[in-house]
């Protein structure tokens, strides 16, 4: 199959493309500017375009058999035109329209575990509204809702490893007891690719979590132990101090976190991975093995 992929240059996109190629597919990637690393790959074609504008998307997707839409952001910068509404909702509407006009009916969509009509943060709320566009389309769709994605080239994974490598004390937001079920990025990629050949996956929404659940504190300890650090000393920052400071500073790009990201983090990120793993033939990577792979990478 020839697969049209958006978000190909991102963290998950890189792994999805590798898995598609391993399974014998050819790939056409939509990119905003020339990307030599993709262009050098055999069986990968790149076309320039922008998901936030409908211009040229039908032509870019024409001749493909399926769409994998991975575009998304975790932080908005409205002053630069980077908003959740534009990158989650408008982009999804444009890609759905392009797929329908190009005669493509199979569509796989990256959402998030926190997507909900009642989500208080714009991230989860716009992810839900994008899902609604998918559900209302005429496409044969599958939705994926990953939890925290863990991998050697992931921003969150790199941050934790660097903190444990270079800082004597690890900063932790709040009490660190909030629960996480990190999912390996290669498992996420495999789920997308296996869904392409699974009629059972059509019309399904899959929650994608890892097989192990731990607190943030425990995750820090597990990574530290894998690095040979017996004791990872932690400095817990009370929310009563963190949130006012973050609300004041989050408009600046250099500030590492937003108040919405803090709210989502302390709410936890867990789910039941069984339907996703069993229906799409995935043997989920344990958290211990995910950590080993991240450190080796």
Distance between the termini: 30 Å
Label the overall shape.
Answer: globular
- Low-confidence stretches are none
The structure class reads alpha/beta
Strand residue percentage: 15-25%
Any descriptors?
single chain; about 300 residues; Rossmann fold; two-stranded parallel sheet; globular
Describe the structure.
With 297 residues, this protein is of the alpha/beta class. It has a domain at 2-149 and 183-209 and 270-284: Rossmann fold. 42% of the residues lie in helices and 18% in strands. The chain has twelve helices and 13 strands. Helix 4 packs parallel to helix 5 (122-135). The two termini are 30 Å apart. The model has no long low-confidence stretch (mean pLDDT 95).
Compose a concise summary of this entry.
The chain has 297 residues and is an alpha/beta fold. The protein is built from twelve helices and 13 strands.
Any chance you could write out the topology, listing elements then pairs?
Elements: E1 2-6, H1 11-22, E2 26-31, H2 36-39, E3 44-48, H3 57-61, E4 66-69, H4 84-101, E5 106-110, H5 122-135, E6 140-146, E7 149-150, H6 155-166, E8 170-173, E9 179-180, E10 183-184, H7 185-196, E11 204-208, E12 214-215, H8 216-226, E13 234-237, H9 239-249, H10 259-267, H11 274-279, H12 287-296
